């Protein structure tokens, strides 16, 4: 077997050397260890904006953060709460059973009926469909109709 060049017993042979690459770390201890070792450290914050999926609540919170005013969040009206309670009683459901029906907790149903809840369109839609009563727009409490009249 022929050896190439002047290679001795004590010489280190490197078959494959990994090239230096940037290491991504998320802990402060790793960053400090790299600084102590003398490595070049660059820190960047990853900012993800998903403006297309930002809900009305997040826009309102962003406006509140920019302003100096203190504004209480809007809550559902008592008309909506009374309409939910009336339709629930007509269907002979208690708050817990209605919560299970719309996949929400009993406390959420209680907050909507008491007028304490911040309106969520998805929850209102589920309540409308399960109770068969309009809870948004005009004619709150009237029967929910589908399609043409």
Defining key terms:
149 residues; mainly alpha; 40% helix
Please give the structural blueprint.
Blueprint: H1 28-36, H2 56-66, H3 78-90, H4 95-101, H5 106-114, H6 121-131
Helix pairs in contact: 3-5, 4-5
Q: What shape does the CA trace take?
A: elongated
Helix-strand sequence: HHHHHH
Q: Overall pLDDT, averaged?
A: 80
Helix residue percentage: 40-55%
Give an overview in words.
There is one protein chain. The chain has 149 residues and is mainly alpha-helical. 40% of the residues lie in helices and 0% in strands. It contains 6 helices and no strands. Helix 3 crosses helix 5 and helix 4 packs across helix 5. It starts with 27 loop residues before the first helix and ends in an 18-residue tail after the last helix. The mean pLDDT is 80.
Describe the structure in brief.
This protein has 149 residues and is an all-alpha fold.
